[in-house]
Target: Dehydrogenase/reductase SDR family member 7B
Amino acid sequence: MIFPISLRKIEGRHSGKRTPFRLQSCLSYLYFDGSTSNAHARPKGWDWTEPGEGSLRHFRGGRMKLIDHDVCGNQRSREGLLTGSPLVSRLSHSPWGKRPEKKDTGTRTRHWHSSCHLRKSLLKLRIMDFLTSTAILPLLFGCVGVFSLLKLLQRMRMRAYLQNAVVVITGATSGLGRECAKVFYAAGAKLVLCGRNREALEELTKELTASQVTKVEMHKPYMVTFDLADPGAIVAATAEILRCFGCVDVLINNAGVSYRGAITDTTMDVDKTVMEINYFGPVALTKALLPSMIKRQRGHIVAISSIQGKISIPFRSAYAASKHATQAFFDCLRAEMEQYEIEVTVISPGYIHTNLSLNALTADGSKYGVMDKTTAQGRRPVEVARDVLAAVGKKKKDVILADLLPSLAIYLRTLAPGLFFSLMASRARKEQKSKNS
Ligand SMILES: NC(=O)c1ccc[n+]([C@@H]2O[C@H](COP(=O)([O-])OP(=O)(O)OC[C@H]3O[C@@H](n4cnc5c(N)ncnc54)[C@H](OP(=O)(O)O)[C@@H]3O)[C@@H](O)[C@H]2O)c1
Model:
């Protein structure tokens, strides 16, 4: 491997006498041999190898040692400090001797020839040095420029995609849904806000219309109230949603309920309710809106799933099951809808600081009513909402919005399932113990 380095100044030791000299005019490269036997070479050993000419070693603190041969083939060495930019290296002084006198023959001449060969290669390196030192900055600026331009184009495309788009958000009364309403509204979307609580929706609408966003044209949001656990209500709600702006461009299936309980204690009614709200409700609404999207060959379906749609945590069975089902359904939908140019995005957030754990159902169907520590320490819903906006704008297919640990757990479940299962079993034991005590 070649590592160009800078040798701006090196203090030389020659023939036992310490002679300071500058190294500046030619480029040299360090070749990393990867396996140094030099105990002093830290952090790594470096060798500069112009065949037969010498070697350059890198010491801790930037001290260098140069070993070469004089024209008579005697080994000599210099030590010095390595300073300057790590990109280019320069040597001022060619340490490889003068042209031998005419009478010189044999070893001296051979060494002189090898010095000439070295000078030629140094000239080549100097040209390369010039090219790299002059080209590197424009290249760097060029890359930054192209990157910024691409980002700008992406932002413009995203803005155009969402501005004036009809966006339906379920569960807009609280938490993530409420924040999504704000960010999509600010992006110029025409909103249809859905929820069970009319008052909460009215309050949100007032807040939105009172907000001062001047960059884009704003549209007064519509409200549609219905219960996702009631299949009959969904049919009527779909007709109402379509009447608001005449079509739907983006449907965000956000509404959901969580669950806390042991499988052995949980009634089937609770399992069914969680599945109705988190799975059958969004599926029914999506199916009801799809024909109008297919007709227009335009549309975007978003499912707010969860990390628990990818891995299962003990005492969350119904919730994890409903989110796994959501992931599976919308993955299938994505494949089937591609021919109609309908986008499908599944978003899997980690913990968000919302009322989700407060509203969670327990084994007997009552409300859990506790703000879990994990939920309280979760991300701010507004940040997650911005990520949702970006994911929709960029037409992403599957997005994980979680910290490192939950994301790693997903890989662990795939790559080392045995380890993942024993970790979950130990978590279950601990939780059970703390419940019993
Ligand atoms: N918070 C987290 O840590 C977290 C993590 C990953 C994924 N998520 C997902 O994010 C989504 C939003 O949850 P959140 O955190 O914002 O919780 P949230 O504050 O409790 O909001 C849940 C929303 O869903 C609505 N909803 C519940 N049951 C409904 C039903 N039967 N019919 C219609 N709407 C109903 C609620 O409306 P009401 O006001 O009428 O109850 C509320 O607007 C959920 O799908 C959740 O699974 C949350």
